[in-house]
Specification:
Length: 318
C-alpha cells in the first residue's frame, strides 16, 4: 500500500501513517476552493451512492458529510436509527447488508459502540467511514482540526496543543492525540482528574492539572464539550464550579505569554467550558473548522473511492 493509499475504510487515525494523514490534508486544500465557486460541485464521485447511517444524534457531522457528498456529485441516502428497522431489533450487520444489496458504494457510520465502524467494515464490501464510534475515535473531526491548525500556523510539527476538558468521554480527543503526535506536535491534556483517563500519559501526552499552567505552555487549545449525556453523577461538582476552575475565559487567556489559538469541535456549552467572548473572539478558529470539515470529508470520500491525491492537477475538476 502506497503511503497515500488509505485502504478500504477510514475507522481511525491510530493505525494511520503520517504520510496518509498528510495526503488527506493536502487533498483537502484544493477542495476548499470548490466550496467558494458559484457552482459548488465537481463530478469526482458521480454515480456513487453513499449511505449516512447515524445511530446517534448529530447535526454538524451529518450535515458536513452531506455537503461533502453532494459537492462531489454523489447520490446520498440518510438513515437514522430511530426511523429504521434498527428500532425493531435489526442488527447493525443486517442493516448494512440490506443496504449493500441495493448496490451502495460507501457507508458513513456514527454509532454509540466503540469499534462499530471497524466491525462493519470487516463484514461488508463497501467502504466504511467512521463518523464517531462510542469513546473510540472521530477521525474526520481530528483531520479538520489538523487542517485548521496547519492553515493558521503553516505547520503541525513542533506546535504545542493542549486538549482541554472532558477527555475521558471524548472520541475527538483520542483521534486528535494520534493525529497530532504522528505529525510531530507536542500534545497535552488538561482537566479535572475525574475527566482524564487514568493512563492518558501512556499516550505520550503531558498532563496539566491547572489551566493556568496549560496557558503558559500552549500554542493552541482544543476545548472539549462537557459530555453531560455520557456522565453519571460525581464527575464534577457543578457546571458553575467547572467554569470557575477550568473555563477558558478572556481573563485567563490575557495572562498567556502569546496569543493562544482556540478550537472547539462543537456543539459548545457557552459559559461552561468556554466563554462566548472567547468563542467569538479574534483567536477563535471555530468557524474555519466548520468550513474545513467539508473539504476534509470531500478528501476522505474521494481518496477512499480511489482518487489520486493530486486530483486538481490530474483533471479531477474537469
Amino acid at each position: 500500500m502506497s503511503p497515500a493509499t488509505l485502504g478500504k475504510d477510514l475507522v481511525g487515525l491510530e493505525h494511520m501513517s503520517a504520510e496518509q494523514i498528510t495526503a488527506i490534508l493536502d487533498t483537502a486544500e484544493p477542495f476548499k476552493e470548490v466550496s467558494e465557486r458559484p457552482i459548488k460541485k465537481v463530478p469526482a464521485l458521480r454515480g456513487k451512492t453513499i449511505v449516512n447511517l447515524f445511530f446517534e444524534a448529530s447535526t454538524r457531522t451529518r450535515i458536513s458529510f452531506e455537503f461533502a457528498e453532494k459537492r462531489l456529485s454523489a447520490d446520498t441516502v440518510n438513515v437514522q436509527a430511530a426511523g429504521s428497522s434498527v428500532s425493531k431489533g435489526e442488527t447493525l450487520v443486517d442493516t448494512a447488508r440490506n443496504l449493500e444489496a441495493m448496490r451502495i458504494d460507501m457507508v458513513v457510520i456514527r454509532h454509540g459502540s466503540s469499534g462499530a465502524a471497524q466491525f462493519l467494515g470487516q463484514r461488508i464490501r463497501s467502504n466504511v467511514i467512521n463518523a464517531g464510534d462510542g469513546k473510540h475515535e472521530h477521525p474526520t473531526q481530528a483531520l479538520l482540526d489538523l487542517l485548521t491548525l496547519r492553515d493558521r500556523f503553516g505547520r503541525i510539527a513542533g506546535l504545542k496543543v493542549c486538549i482541554m476538558g472532558d477527555v475521558l468521554h471524548s472520541r475527538v480527543a483520542r483521534s486528535n492525540i494520534w493525529g497530532l503526535t504522528k505529525l510531530g506536535a507536542q500534545v497535552a491534556v488538561c482537566g479535572p482528574p475525574t475527566l482524564l483517563p487514568s493512563h492518558v500519559a501512556d499516550l505520550g501526552v503531558t498532563v496539566f492539572r491547572r489551566i493556568e499552567d496549560a496557558i503558559q505552555w500552549a500554542d493552541a487549545f482544543n476545548v472539549l464539550r462537557l459530555q453531560l449525556e455520557r456522565m453519571t453523577a460525581g464527575f464534577i461538582p457543578s457546571l458553575r464550579e467547572y467554569n470557575r476552575v477550568f473555563g477558558v475565559t478572556n481573563e485567563r487567556l490575557s495572562k498567556a505569554p502569546k496569543d493562544i489559538v482556540i478550537l472547539h469541535p462543537g456543539p459548545m456549552n457557552r459559559g461552561v467550558e468556554i466563554d462566548s467572548d472567547v468563542a467569538d473572539g479574534p483567536h477563535s478558529v471555530i468557524l474555519p473548522q466548520v468550513t474545513n470539515g467539508v473539504a476534509v470529508r470531500m478528501a476522505v470520500l474521494y481518496l477512499l473511492a480511489g482518487g489520486a491525491p493530486d486530483w486538481a492537477t490530474a483533471g479531477g475538476d474537469a
